[in-house]
Every structure is written in C-alpha cells, then in structure tokens.
Design a protein that fits this description.
The chain has helices at 16-27, 70-77, 109-119, 124-137, 153-162, 166-173, 178-183, 188-194, 204-215, 225-239, 282-285, 297-304, 375-383, 386-407, 423-430, 474-491, and strands at residues 8-12, 31-35, 47-50, 53-56, 92-98, 101-106, 243-245, 250-256, 259-265, 270-272, 275-278, 313-322, 330-340, 343-352, 364-373, 415-421, 461-463. The protein is 35% helix and 21% strand. The chain binds flavin-adenine dinucleotide.
Length: 498
C-alpha cells in the first residue's frame, strides 16, 4: 500500500450521499469512516415499523433502474440494486378524480393518450403534445460518470447524443410551470390532473421528466422498500472494510491553516482525517459544522430567496386498511377544505402500498397521505410549543381520516391510524432545511442550483448530498458521493475513473 492509498477519509452523515462517498472512497483505495448522528443510517431514505406494519417513506421511483442508464452502474456499485432486484409491478404514475370521474397516467403512454383523448376530445391538441413530449423526455439522464465541470468535449458530445430529444422538451415546457400546463387544458378534471403531483410553481418539464422516468422503466420501485435498500448499501460499505459510527453527531469540522484536519465529536474529542466529506444538509454544514462565511454565493442566494428557490416537505400520515386496494396506486381527489400548516388545502391523495406484501400483515395494506408543505408551513410547525404540536397532529389526523373515509366509504370501520409526521420531523431527524426532503425547487426563470462540492478557503473539505444539484433526490445524492471522491482523486493527480 502506498502513501496515497492509506489516506483516511472521514464522511459526516450516513444518508445515501454519505454511504456512496464511503463506498467510492474505499474503491479508490482510501480508508473510510462514516459518522452518523442517528441510530439507524439512511437519513431520508428511510422506513420504520408501527403496529406490525412497515411505513416505507422514500422511494416512489428510483431513477436509474434501467441497466442502459449509466446511473444503474452507480446503484449497482453501492449495492442498492443488481440484475436480480425485484421491482413493484406498478402500471401507473397516479390517478386523479373529480365528480365521480377518474383519469390515469399509465406507464404505457399509448394507453394514457387513448384514455385522455376519449375522455376530453376538446383537449386533443394539448394531450397529443404532452404525450409526444413525455416520450422525448425519456431521453433525460442524470450525469453520473463524472462531475460536469470535469467533463471534456467528448463527454459533452456523448451526453448531447444521449439526451438528443431533451431540447424539444425544454423548448415547449422549460419556460412554463405546472400551473400553466394545467391551465392549457380545458377539461376541469384534466386541469387538476396536471397539477396534482407537483406544486404549481414547479417547472412543467420536471413533471414531464418524472412521468417519463416511470414510463420508460427507468424509475422502478425495488421491493422491500427504502430502508432495506439503505441497509444493502451499508452492508456493501462494511464488507469493503468501511467503519460506520452511529449515534455519533458531529459538532464541527476542525480547520487549521485553512485546511480541514478532522472532526469534533459531541464529547469534544477530535478525530483526525486526511480528507473530510460533508454529506449533511448544506444549511447545517454552513453555520454549524463550519463558519457560515464559507457558504458559496449561489447557495446563499438560494437560501435567501425563498420565492425563487422554494423547498417542499410534507404533512404525512399512514393508515392500515383491509387489503382491497391492490392496483390502485396513488389517487388524488377533492376534499373538504383543511388547514394544514399555514395553508388551506382542498385536494389530497392516498397512496396504497399494496404492491409490497412485506409491508403489512396478511390481509392488510398500508395507505399513506402526503400534504405538500412549503417554507411558510415549516415556520408554522416550528412555532408550536410541544403541547400544541402534539395536539395539532392529533386533531389533523382525525380530520384527514374523516376525509379519506368520505372518499372511500368502503374503508369505514376498518381503517386505523399508524403514524403522522411533519416538516419538523425531518428537521429534527436529519437537520433538513425547513424539513425539505428534496433540494431547491426549480422554478421558471431561476438558475438551477449547481454547487461544485468544494469549499473556497478550506482545503481537503468536500461536499456531497442532494443539495449540490437541484432538484435533489436519491440520484443526485448517490452521484454526489461518487463525485466528492473523484474530486479528491483529481486533487492528487490520480485517475478519476472509479
Ligand atoms: C417522503 C419522501 C419521499 C421521497 N421520494 C423520493 C423518490 O421517490 N425518489 C427520489 O429520488 N428521492 C425521494 N426522496 C428524497 C430522498 O430521500 C433524498 O433526496 C435523499 O435520501 C437525500 O440523501 P442525502 O444523503 O443527500 O441526505 P440525508 O438523507 O438528509 O442524509 C444526511 C445524513 O446526515 C446526518 N446528519 C445530519 N447532521 C449530522 C451531524 N451533525 N453529525 C452526523 N450526522 C449528521 C443525518 O442524520 C442524515 O442521515 C423522498 C424523500 C421523502 C422523505
């Protein structure tokens, strides 16, 4: 072993980004140790048990499940999936209801086109244009070989070829948001349908890309859920020789002579490292782990500009129901107005987890509701005293339950609340900024957040995690861990091919 290979890399945070960084660091020949504040690794890629049920709280789709996408190799390298992975047999993205009618975005685009044209012939032009462009959006890939700033002309040409149809999508849907998309339809149900999944201020192209990912078979859901996937990655890390410290919150990154030299644990002791990778939320890195003065300008601008760079979280609930929801997926519907956080909502959804029998005892299914919460809602939840917070959750749980039964009267008498959680839960559990479980939302006209993952003024410190590139999510988390290690390799003049 030469000097370079024996270097020690410390990673802070065992979410998907931190675990990925650990595995790639080991692959590159370094020693790797991860420090995680929680007892269970995984961060936001998580699930937990209640009353004999498993609440799976992350993967609605995992981008990169098609082996033709290079991202698949990254997921395979970290041990998340392989050739034998079994996926949920879901045939749709979601359905929307209004006044007793229902429409669905099927994974089969021809089926969706036919259903929507038959349902609303007066919207034929916008329906055809929408479906054609979802087909084009299937070409969208997330760069996963190397960071974009390390790409050469050849890499860009290759990426251009891979994404040949994306410019068409950007031309038509890059400058409008989901609200505008919805308004281009005449039929009242189709208007709601198009803005049910993503908030109205999200760019419309993000919605098309999300649907295209499902429709192309590149966004499957691995069976057994999010926590099981996290634990497969942890297993890979440990088998490769990595050390994971849990219940180990880090106080700060120790900087000497403009260089990160290690970390300080909660008891004040210092652990030295040759390189440090922060894989915690960037709002926690800057201002807690290191001085806020190091925050890059673009990132600061995003945090300070809550309108152009909103974030989203959820008020969420899980129920146990009798097992008659197979094949229904996610359904949106109108509900009696409900004030949650700082906003009054008139539409809600349920998602049935009937596709994975391991989540519930025989004869039962887990049903979840997720109400989008924004920055201002987070402020509301955070302002409550512990007593107020508890009683608000209890009150809202009953209100949501009543609305679920109003839409699905067949569930009455056989539905039980399993759990309820809020944006504050994510902040407490993961130090997530405003409880957000994705990165900054890409709104029309804002510059997409892209942060190189190095900190000006501090050597040997690298940054991974979903906040380095909008819109965040698991693919950005996993590639950012790999990219952080490639940056270390580059700083040593070594090959970045790992
Ligand atoms: C309900 C829900 C649905 C989602 N659906 C999808 C989906 O369908 N597809 C998709 O791609 N993504 C989805 N996501 C998003 C995805 O879960 C996140 O993007 C991803 O898990 C973020 O990973 P990360 O490693 O960047 O950050 P995190 O998961 O936040 O990891 C950061 C880690 O750092 C730890 N930490 C924080 N502070 C410290 C400290 N001081 N010391 C030590 N450790 C610390 C935290 O505990 C945490 O484990 C969903 C998330 C949620 C909650």
């Amino acid at each position: 072993m030469n000097n370079t290979e024996s270097k020690k890399v410390i990673i802070i945070g065992a979410g998907i980004a931190g675990l990925s960084a650990g595995i790639y660091a080991l692959k590159a020949g370094y020693k790797a140790e991860i420090y995680e504040k929680n007892a269970v690794p995984g961060g936001e890629c998580m699930g937990w048990n209640r009353k004999g049920h498993h609440i799976d709280n992350c993967i609605h789709w995992l981008t990169g499940t098609n082996p033709k996408d290079n991202l698949w190799n990254v997921w395979k390298t970290v041990g998340a999936i392989d050739e034998n992975t079994e996926y949920a047999a879901e045939d749709r993205f979601y359905s929307s209801r209004l006044d007793g009618k229902e429409v669905t975005l099927w994974n089969d685009l021809d089926k969706t086109r036919a259903e929507l044209l038959a349902f609303s012939p007066e919207d034929a032009d916008v329906i055809n244009k929408f479906i054609d462009h979802v087909e084009y959006a299937k070409s969208c890939v997330i760069p996963s070989r190397k960071p974009m700033d390390m790409m050469g002309v050849k890499d860009y040409i290759e990426m251009g070829k891979d994404m040949a149809d994306m410019p068409k999508v950007m031309k038509e849907y890059g400058k409008i948001n989901c609200g505008d998309l919805a308004n281009s339809f005449k039929n009242p149900l189709l208007k709601k349908f198009m803005s049910d999944y993503l908030p109205a201020d999200y760019t419309a192209y993000s919605f098309l890309v999300s649907y295209a990912t499902m429709a192309s078979g590149n966004g499957n859901i691995p069976l057994k859920g999010s926590l099981a996937m996290t634990l497969r990655i942890v297993d890979r890390f440990k088998k490769m020789g990595g050390i994971l410290h849990t219940n180990a919150p880090i106080n700060r990154i120790v900087i000497e002579n403009k260089k990160a030299i290690g970390i300080e644990l909660a008891d004040g002791s210092v652990v030295k490292a040759d390189e440090v990778i922060s894989a915690v939320d960037t709002s926690f890195l800057f201002g807690h782990l290191i001085d806020d003065k190091y925050m890059p300008k673009d990132l600061r601008n995003a945090y300070e500009n809550r309108t152009a760079y909103p974030v989203t979280s959820g008020f969420q609930m899980a129920f146990s129901i009798k097992d008659d929801f197979s094949g229904k997926g996610t359904i949106f519907f109108d509900c009696e107005p409900l004030r949650i956080g700082d906003n009054t909502l008139t539409r809600m959804s349920v998602k049935a987890y009937a596709y994975d029998k391991s989540f519930a005892p025989e004869g039962r299914t887990v049903l979840q509701s997720n109400f989008v919460q924004t920055d201002i809602d987070y402020e509301y939840w955070a302002s409550l005293s512990p007593e107020e917070y508890k009683s608000k959750k209890e009150e809202l749980s009953q209100e949501v339950l009543r609305r679920v039964i109003a839409e699905f009267p067949e569930l009455e008498g056989d539905i039980e609340i399993l759990d309820c959680w809020t944006p504050v839960t994510y902040n407490r559990y993961c130090n997530a900024y405003h409880g957000s479980y994705m990165g900054f939302v890409t709104t029309v006209g804002n510059k997409q957040m892209r942060f190189k993952g190095v900190v000006k003024g501090v050597k040997n410190l690298y940054v991974a995690g979903q906040w380095v590139m909008s819109p965040g999510g698991l693919p950005i988390a996993v590639v950012s861990g790999k990219f952080a290690v490639q940056r270390i390799l580059k700083s040593e003049g070594r090959s970045i091919e790992i």
